[in-house]
């Protein structure tokens, strides 16, 4: 097996200065982000205390939440879902349609049975 010479790592003063500049810029960015976050949270807290929240915003948040959980008729929601469901109302239209289809099929079968009985002479 061949042996290699160990790799020598050389740091110059330019490398150290570049690292320190990078580190300082990262700290400044974190500080700026924290200041902006505290400003926005204090502004929203003061708006809440003053009762200045727009009712339209509240409805938009409600609609967004409803769409995420799938109870809204908007885009991304369940098709045919009632946007304001009460207990027992979700999917009633689909059940009614299925029952109607079953009733029609039963009527068709009854008619076929009657026709076959009439043609065979029983009945």
Descriptive account of the structure:
There is one protein chain. By secondary structure, the chain is an all-alpha fold. Helices cover 67% and strands 0% of the residues. The chain has three helices and no strands. The termini are far apart. The mean pLDDT is 75.
Which features would summarize this protein structure in a list?
single chain; 123 residues; mainly alpha; elongated
How are the elements arranged and paired?
Blueprint: H1 13-50, H2 55-69, H3 92-120
In short:
The chain has helices at residues 13-50, 55-69, 92-120. The protein has 123 residues and is mainly α. It is elongated and about 110 Å long.
Overall geometry: elongated
Helix-strand category: mainly alpha
Number of strands: 0
Order of helices and strands: HHH
* Terminal-residue CA separation: 102 Å
Major β-sheet profile = none
What is the arithmetic mean of pLDDT?
75
Give the helix proportion (percent range): 55-70%
Name the poorly predicted regions: none
From the alpha carbons, calculate the radius of gyration and give it in angstroms: 36 Å
Number of helix segments?
Answer: 3
Fraction in beta strands = under 5%
